[in-house]
Amino acid sequence: MNDVVNIFLCKDKMDVIASMTNYADNQKRFGENVKAIRSRATVVVNGSWVTKFVSSPKALDGMHVREITVSTRMSTAGELSKLKDMLNMARQGRIAMKNAQM
Q1: DSSP of the chain, one letter per residue?
Q2: How confident is the model at residue 1 (pLDDT cuts 50, 70, 90)?
Q3: What burial class does residue 102 get, using C-beta atoms within 10 Å of its C-beta: 0-12 exposed, 13-18 middle, 19+ buried?
Q4: By the 8 A CB rule, do 66 and 5 touch?
Q5: Would strands 42-45 and 34-37 be described as parallel, antiparallel, or unpaired?
């Protein structure tokens, strides 16, 4: 995947669903055109702003990342080592995006 995306780091599959729903509802309140694709854990805003919701480090492989957000459940009740691994993978995605822009 070479598209630039935002990622939302989640604790588990239940957190992915809850975070996706909450994010989509918040964007709709701002009057945005929102499309939630549950099978891909993706929310697309206005046809171009893509946010992926992930709960494992391997799901981040190959992504070019614009922004990183950590869910409340992940930051307060998640495993610290899992969060560290996910942030390292996301950081590599940020570096890949910056290198591709040069």
Answers
A1: --SEEEEEE-SSHHHHHHHHHHHHHHHHHTT--EEEEGGGTEEEETTTEEEEEESSGGGGTT-EEEEEEE-HHHHHHS-HHHHHHHHHHHHHHHHHHHHHH-
A2: very low
A3: exposed
A4: yes
A5: antiparallel
CB 53 within 8 A of CB 19: yes
Distance CA(95)–CA(30), nearest Å, equals 31
Residues paired with 4 in a beta bridge = 64
Q: What does the alpha-carbon distance between residue 9 and residue 76 come to, in Å, rounded to a whole number?
A: 12
Q: For 43-76, what is each residue's pLDDT tens digit?
A: 999 988 999 999 988 888 778 888 888 888 887 7
What is the distance between the alpha carbons of residues 82 and 21, in angstroms, rounded to a whole number? 23
Q: How far is CA 96 from the centre of its chain?
A: 16
Length in residues, the chain: 102
pLDDT digits 0-9 by tens, 8-45: 999 899 999 999 999 999 999 999 999 999 999 999 99
